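Predict structure. Input: Phosphate starvation-inducible protein PsiH, 472 residues.
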Amino acid sequence: MIKRQKDSVCLFVLDTNVLMHDPTAIFRFHEHHVFLPMVVLEELDAGKKGISEVARNVRQTSRFLDELISDASREDIEAGLPIQTLGDAGRSLSAPPAGRLFFQTKPLTSQASANLPSHSADNNILATALALREQHQDLQVVIVSKDINLRIKATVLGIAAEDYSNDQVLEDVDLLYTGLRTLPANFWDRHAKTLDSWKEEGRTFYRITGPDLAEWYPGECLSLTDDPPFEAMVREKRGAQEAVIELVEDYRLPRHNVWGIRARNPEQNFALNMLMNPEIDFVSLLGTAGTGKTLLALAAGLAQVLDRSIYREIIMTRVTVPVGEDIGFLPGTEEEKMTPWMGALMDNLEVLTQTEGGEWGRAATNDLVRNRIRISSMNFMRGRTFLHKYIILDEAQNLTAKQMKTLITRAGPGTKIVCLGNIAQIDTPYLTETTSGLTYVVDRFKYWDHSGHITLIRGERSRLADFASEQL
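Output follows.
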C-alpha cells in the first residue's frame, strides 16, 4: 500500500465503514483535516435503520454531524468546520485540534477519474480523492477505509490508503498479555532476604519485594520449573516493587477434580484456579481449538452452581456469526433459536454428564444440569442486570470493544463473567486480532485485582486434533 508521508498535514477522506465501525472517528485526526464525500453521507442515511450495532453507530455519527452543522452557516461549511466544536467528544481532547472537517458541497471531477469503471460508491470515493489531490497539492490526500479492496484500488491509482487503526489495542498481537510469567531459576536466591510467608485458612501466601516485580500484574500466573514445580498467582500488587502471591491448588490430582474434570497441563491448572475462585469476577481464556476452554468453564460453573451454590445458574451466550452460509431464520423460542449455535455446549455436556447408574442415572443427571443452564442471545442483553449468575461468553473474539462493554456492564452483584475465544479465528467483518473486543478486555483487565487471564497452549482434545492443529 502507498503510505502517507510522516510529519505532513494530510487530508483524510473517510470511507463509510470507518464511521460505521467507530462513530468518533472524526475526532481522531487532530492535527489533520477530514473530508466526507457526499456518497458517504448517502450510505450513512441508508444504514441508519434497524437495531444492529452498525445502525446504532450510524445514528450516533449523524448526531455528531448534526451538532456540528446546527450553528454553522454555508460559508463556515465551505471553509471547513473546526473539529473541536463537536460537543463533549471534542472538549475531551487535551489540546484543541488544528484540523477541520470538510463536506463535499459540489461535484468533484478529475481527468484521472474518467477511466474508473461504473459508478459504485467505492469508485466515487476514489474519484473524489483524485480530484482533491489535484486541487490541494499542498496537502497529502489519504483514503482511510476498513475495506481492503478499496485500499488496493487506491494503491493502483497512486493514492495513499490506510486502514483505520485508532481502534487497535496493540500494534502487534504478539504483545498481547498471556497471563503467565516464567520465573528465572535463581528467583528465590535473589529475593530470599525480603521474603515473608504465612498460611491462612489452609492457603499459603508469600510477600516478596524487589525490582523484578515492577512488571507483574494482579492475577498474573507465576511458574518456576523446579522439582516439585512452583505455581502461584499474584493476589495483590503493592506499589511497583512489592506483591503478595498465593500458591495455587493442584487440580491435576484426582482428589481435586472439578465435576470429574482434572487439569492436564499447567495452563489448565491456572485456568481452573481462576474459574473456581469467587473473588475473581472476570476470567478470560484464550486458546486454539481443543485446549479445553469451554470444558473447563462449564465444569467450574456446574461445580459452583450445583455443589457450592455460589451462583444461581449458568448463562451461556455467543455471537451468532456463521462460518459458512447462513441457514436463515430459525423457529421457536430464544433458547430454541440459539440451540444450533451451541454445539460446543452440548458436546461438552456429554463429557460432563458421563455418570454411573446406566441410562436412568445419565438421564437424571442431564435433567438436573440442563435445568441450571440457560442459553441466551446477545441480541437481548442491553438493559439487563444479571444477579448471582455464572456467564460464559463463547467465541468472544467476534465481538467489538463496544459490544464487549455492553455485555460486561450487565453484571450485577455476585456475577462472574468468563470470556472464551481464539483470536486467530475471527469471523466478523472489519475485526482483526488487534482490534477484537476479546483482545481489548484482555489488555484492559490485566490491571484489575479481581480479574484473571491465561492463554492455553497445549491441545488436549485428541492426538488427531493436535496433529491437525500443528500441520494443517
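The domain at 10-162 is CATH 3.40.50.1010 (Rossmann fold).
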